[in-house]
Design a protein that fits this description.
With 337 residues, this protein is an alpha/beta fold. The chain has two domains: 11-160, 3-Layer(aba) Sandwich (Rossmann fold); 163-333, Lactate dehydrogenase/glycoside hydrolase, family 4, C-terminal (L-2-Hydroxyisocaproate Dehydrogenase, Chain A, domain 2, Alpha-Beta Complex). 43% of the residues lie in helices and 19% in strands. It is built from eleven helices and 14 strands. The chain has helices at 21-31, 53-66, 80-84, 104-125, 139-148, 163-177, 215-218, 222-234, 236-244, 250-265, 312-336, and strands at residues 11-16, 42-47, 71-77, 89-92, 131-134, 158-160, 184-185, 188-190, 198-200, 205-208, 211-214, 273-278, 290-298, 301-304. The strands form four sheets. It has a six-stranded parallel beta sheet. A three-stranded antiparallel beta sheet has the order 7-10-11. It has a three-stranded antiparallel beta sheet with strand order 12-13-14. A hairpin with a 7-residue loop joins strand 8 (188-190) and strand 9. Helix 5 packs across helix 11 (312-336). It starts with 10 loop residues before the first strand and ends with a helix. 45% of the residues are buried. The structure holds ligand NAX. Ligand NAX binds next to helix 1.
Length: 337
Amino acid sequence: MAPATASNEPIRVLITGAAGQIAYSLIPLIAKGEVFGQKQEIILHLLDIQPMLGVLNGVAMEISDCAFPLLRDVVATADVAAAFKGISYAFLVGAMPRREGMERKDLLKANVRIFKDQGGALDQFAKKDVKVLVVGNPANTNALICSKYAPSIPKENITAMTRLDQNRATAQVAQHVQARIQDVRKVIIWGNHSNTQFPDARFVEVQKDGSWTSISKVQHDEKWLKESLIPLVQKRGAEVIAARKLSSAMSAAQAAADHMRNWFNGTEKDQWVNMAVVSKGEYGIPEGLVFSFPVTVENGQWKIVPNLAIDDFSKEKLKITTTELEEERTEAHAACE
Ligand code: NAX
């Protein structure tokens, strides 16, 4: 599939929270061409807050020491205007991370205001066709707020990350059916990047002996898919925090790179990826919520996979995560007033 941007001009790519741990793993993936390809030169814009400038300068030194051939320049700054100026792609990672025992809702108030300000900065300084991935939590609702305060940027261009949940679920399914990762496709993550998300393996296909078959034919284990896989993926972030004493970073960076690479390059035939995108009412999800759906991507445009059957079990799961997102939206609007 042809890349959405064929230009050989360097593109400006912003990473916020650039002194943080996800950025530390994400920067080399972008600078090595694993997102925008091996021919696309890049000018990296790195934003963090003033007290972190010392650390950010250390990161900038390391970037220089990597001598990345694709990297034309680095702008490391605490100045929001300089960071957002002329950018074509943004990874909005910077936020307060969830610590052990902390619920996502505690984070909401502190974090949505950051995304209100950054929405304003996108509106004012970014290219009008900028493509945005929100990683900082609560990611879906931060994206919704960001979009509200960036009225000149198309709503379709502001997305949030559930690719980590997709990758987690795919790895678990692959392990369960004893297949390679690349032999598992069509895992769905519906809803919020939180423990109300619905990891849905009903449409999963597994490749065996060169042909793709429904998971139900390969391994008829509905009990595992419903009772083990769903809570495992929902709680994986908390499990990593408990073990590492820090939230997921390497896997989050990989997922952010995967999300943007598929948005930039498109998806393969029969490949679905999950992105939290603005709802236009698909699958009965209220219009305007930023909700994770399975999508395909062509020419830089995502399209929600249509006509998937929603049974009673799935309906109930979709309702739970929708209700949480509606509550978050109400709280977020109040916090931004
Ligand atoms: P770190 O605390 O290591 O880094 C965050 C960085 O953001 C810090 O350097 C901080 O100074 C900076 N920052 C804070 N406010 C800022 C602002 N207004 N402008 C620019 N920078 C700002 O956190 P890290 O582990 O990198 O996690 C970053 C975010 O990703 C957190 O919100 C975390 O909850 C979220 N995550 C989202 C995931 C997803 O799948 N959507 C998974 C991983 C991760 O938990």
